[in-house]
Write a structure and sequence with these properties.
The protein has helices at 2-19, 32-43, 145-150, 276-281; strands spanning 50-60, 66-80, 83-93, 101-107, 115-120, 125-129, 156-165, 169-170, 177-178, 183-191, 197-205, 211-218, 223-234, 239-249, 255-265. It has 284 residues and is mostly beta strands. It has one domain: outer membrane lipoprotein receptor (LolB), chain A (Clam). The longest helix is centred in the first third of the chain and has 18 residues, at 2-19.
Length: 284
């Protein structure tokens, strides 16, 4: 009997370990391209089996007026059958935006464009979006569709500027100053595709590859937007996970904040959740 119980414990531990993947980390001598691929792994949790979170969304305009929304995000990482991952973001409140959803399928082949669908429950319509919409505002926020749902390293070319100490960032959300003095790889990124920007920079933390900060420049080379991210290690596998995502439009002084809460990994989500038909059936 004791032998049977030991076998069951061992089998359960083995099953959990099979789902856990090693989180990649920066190594000395990595190229800028390799560093950006590592950040892609972290941003879209490609080391996990799946991911869900509840999202608090805060939109602040130049007059400091605030609008708040609640959302839900889910992702399944497949890496088979040509599919990299499937992901959806849905608003659950207030009533004016409840049920509005974006579903994204991303492919392993970097030359194959992502597929994306926007569901508008008030019209009971689904609209397929194209990569030409990637610079559009994501649900009325400072963020673009690409920044939240569909960025890929192959969209840009890169130049490593060296290692810099991050000056720190004071969050509008909680007024804390984050990551001052932490060493980062500073990478310049130049677009391969038609876009509104001339370049952007990525501050990738040297210890783990997490992107702490981005600066976005317009066609004239003027800085017009910043993005900040904070992180925590989440779950039994201690996955590096985005907690606060904060964007500032320096032209309008608009601020958008996403706070990820109730984050869960490796729950065994089913692929059939990630279809247009399922989004239309969901009751938020």
């Amino acid at each position: 009997m004791l032998r049977k119980w030991l076998w069951l414990i061992f089998s359960g531990s083995l099953a959990l370990n099979l789902f856990a993947k090693e989180v990649p980390r920066p190594k000395e001598g990595m190229s800028a391209e390799e560093m950006m691929d590592l950040w892609y792994q972290i941003q879209f949790t490609r080391f996990a089996q799946d991911y869900t979170s509840n999202n608090k969304v805060i939109l602040i305009d130049r007059g400091k007026n605030r609008r708040e929304r609640e959302g839900y995000r889910a992702r399944i990482i497949l890496q088979r059958g040509g599919i990299d991952y499937k992901d959806y973001v849905a608003f659950v409140s207030p009533a004016a935006v409840k049920g509005i959803s974006i579903l994204t399928w991303t492919y392993l082949n970097p030359e194959k464009e992502r597929e994306q669908w926007l569901y508008l429950p008030s019209l009971k319509k689904v609209r397929r979006t194209s990569p030409a919409n990637d610079d559009d505002s994501f649900m009325g926020s400072v963020f673009t569709v690409e920044e939240i749902t569909s960025w890929r390293p192959s969209y840009e070319t890169y130049n490593l500027l060296g290692v810099r100490k991050f000056p720190g960032y004071k969050s509008e959300y909680d007024q804390k100053t984050y990551y001052a003095g932490e060493e980062c790889y500073l990478v310049e990124a130049f677009p391969r595709r038609k876009t509104v920007r001339s370049k952007r920079t990525f501050w990738l933390r040297k210890s783990d590859g997490c992107c702490l900060f981005q600066e976005v420049f317009d066609k004239s080379g003027k800085l017009y937007k910043t993005l900040f991210r904070s992180y925590e290690l989440v779950g039994p596998s201690k996955y590096p996970t985005q907690i606060i995502i904060e964007g500032k439009d320096l032209r309008t002084n608009d601020i958008s904040i996403v706070v990820n809460e109730k984050i869960k990994f490796d729950q065994g989500l089913k692929e059939d959740l990630f279809t247009v038909e399922n989004l239309q059936k969901m009751k938020w």
